Amino acid sequence: MTRPNETIYALSSGALPAGVAVVRLSGPDVGTALDRLTGNDVPSPRHATLQTIRTRNGHVLDKGLVLFFPGPNSFTGEDVAELHLHGGRAVIEALYRELAEIPNLRRAEAGEFSRRAFENGKLDLVEIEGLADLIASETEMQRRLAVEQSTGGLSALYDGWAKRLTRARALIEAELDFADEDDVPGSVSDQVWADMASLGHEIRKHLVEAEMGEIIRDGFKVVIAGEPNAGKSRLMNALVKREVAIVTDIAGTTRDVLQADISVDGYLVKLFDTAGLRETLEPVEREGIRRAELAIEDADLVLFVEDSSRKAPAGHLLLDSAIKIGTKSDLPRRSERGYDVVLSAETGAGLDDLRSLIGNHLKDKVHPQSMAIASRARHKDSLSKCLSAIKASLDDGQRDLDLRAEELRAASDALGRVTGRVDVENLLDVIFGEFCIGK
Predict the structure, then answer these.
(1) To the nearest 10°, the Cα dihedral for 211, 214, 215, 218?
(2) Cβ 302 vs Cβ 321: under 8 Å
(3) DSSP 2-18
(4) Does the N terminus or the C terminus of the chain have fewer Cβ atoms within 10 A?
C-alpha cells in the first residue's frame, strides 16, 4: 500500500551494471536526503550540479550529477531528486544502505512514482498506460501509438467528450431545477440531444478503430499452417532469422504452437508455427492439431503452406482467406497448385515477397488516420458502456427528462473511468457559471 507522506527511492535507469545509473527520489524529505548525502544545500531547481556523495561517516561513496525538481512542477507533483552515479552494483547498493538509514525514506514499490503522478493530477490513467507502453515498445508503430497516449493526445479527445456530456447534463439540470430563471433556456432538446447523437456517432467510430489500436499494441497474429513436412517450421525460422522451431524430416515433429515476433513495416507481427494438419490417432499429436486449429481461428492472417516439390493431393482443403504458399522452390516443382507466393526457406528466394504480402494484409486491416485511438480492452469496455448509456438516453424521447439525464450521468462515469477522472464535482460549477443562477 502506498503512503504518500513517505519519501520513496528507486533505480529508474536500466539494469546494472551500466555506464550511468539514475536513482530517483520523491516525497517530502528529498531535501533532507540530499543534505545528508552531499552536505550541501539543495541544488538550484532543474540544474545539474556535480556533487560528491558521502556515507554518514563522511566516506566518499561516489561523485555524480544531482538534480532537484521542486513540486508541484515535477513528474510526481512532489519534490523529486535524481542522482546520476556510476552504474556499478556496489555503488547503488551502498547508496541504498545510506538512504535506508534516513528517517521516513523507503524503497519504492512497483509503479509507485507513476501512481503518485496520477494521484497528484500530473498524469491520467491513459497517459500512464501510454508511458508503460512507450517503455515496452519494440516497433515504430508501437512507439507512435504510445507517444500519442503518454503525451495526452488521446486524453484530450476524451476530455473533450467529457465536457460535452457535462454541459448536456448541466443544461438538463438547469431546465429541471431552474426553469423560472431568465438565464436558463426554456428547452434544451434540440441542442442537447442533437449533440449527444453526434457524440454517440463519434464514439462508435472510435470503437471501430480500437481494433487497430489493439493490433498495433499487441501485434498482428499470423499463423503458419499446413500439412506435416510442408516446411512450416523452416519458414518460421527463415522469417524470424533464428532457430525458433526444431526442423526434421520426421512428420509431426512440431507438437505445440510456437511463437516469435518480427517487425514488418514498423508493425509488430506475432508469428505462430503450428502442428501439421492431418488425421492421426497419436494422442499428443492430436492435441497439437487441436491447438493449431484454435490458433487458426484466432489468427488475423493464415499462411497456408504446401510443399511445391510434391504433387498436391486432390481435394485437399485450402483456407480461402489464407495466403497460399508453395515451399521448397529450390527443388523441382511437381505441384500444379496456384500459389500466392512460391519460396525457398533454404535459399531465401521469395521471402521478401511474402513479407510484402503480410505487410499489405496488415495495412488493409490497420490504417489509422490518427494515433489517438484506444488500444486496450479496458478502454473498449468503458467506451462501450458510455456509448450504450448515450444510446439509451436517445432511444425514448418520451421518457422523463430526469431519467434521460441519469443515462448521461452513467455515460459520464463510464467515460471518466477510462482516464480515471470520474466527474462528480464540477457539474454545479458548469450550471452556475454558464447560467449565472443565484445572481
Answers:
(1) -160
(2) yes
(3) --TTSEEEEE-SSSSSE
(4) N
- Provide the greatest CA pair distance for the chain: 91
| The Cα angle at residue 216 between residues 162 and 295, in degrees rounded to 5 | 120
Q: Torsion angle, CA of 232/238/239/241, rounded to 10 degrees?
A: 140
Instruction: Give me the pLDDT at residue 319, please.
Output: 67
**CA-to-CA distance for 366 and 26, rounded, in angstroms?**
40
Pick the closest to residue 65 from 101, 38, 39 (CA basis): 38
Sheet hosting strand 258-264, strand order edge to edge:
258-264, 267-273, 220-226, 301-307, 323-327, 341-342
Q: What is the mean pLDDT of the chain?
A: 86
φ, ψ of residue 408 to 5 degrees: the values are: -70, -35
Q: What is the pLDDT of residue 174?
A: 77
| Phi and psi torsions of 327, nearest 5° | -100, 175
Q: What DSSP letter does each residue of 370-431 carry, written as one string?
A: -S----SHHHHHHHHHHHHHHHHHHH-TTS-HHHHHHHHHHHHHHHHHHHT---SSTHHHHH
Host H or E run for residue 133: helix 125-136
pLDDT (0 to 100) of residue 267? 92
The pTM of this model reads: 0.81
Distances (CA, A) of 241 to 45, 245, 261, 275: 49, 11, 11, 20
Top-ranked range on mean pLDDT: pick from 43-57, 124-138, 247-261, 422-436: 43-57
Span between the terminal Cα atoms of the chain, in Å: 46
DSSP one-letter string for 11-45: E-SSSSSEEEEEEEEESTTHHHHHHHHHSSPPPPT
**SS3 at position 324:** strand
* Domains delineated in the chain: 7-119 (3.30.1360.120), 153-214+373-435 (1.20.120.430), 218-365 (3.40.50.300)
pLDDT digits (tens, 9 = 90+) for 330-376: 888 888 788 899 999 889 999 999 999 999 999 888 887 788 899 88
How many CA within 13 A on the CB side of residue 197?
10
Rg (CA), the chain: 30
Q: What is the mean pLDDT of residues 246-265?
A: 72
pLDDT for residue 424? 38
Mean pLDDT of 271-298: 86
Would the pLDDT of 437 be above 70?
Answer: no
What are the phi and psi torsion angles at 76 (to 5°)? -90, -10
Task: Kindly report which listed range (31-45, 166-180, 272-286) carries the lowest average pLDDT score.
Answer: 166-180
Whether the bond between 17 and the residue before it is cis, its omega within 30 degrees of 0, is yes
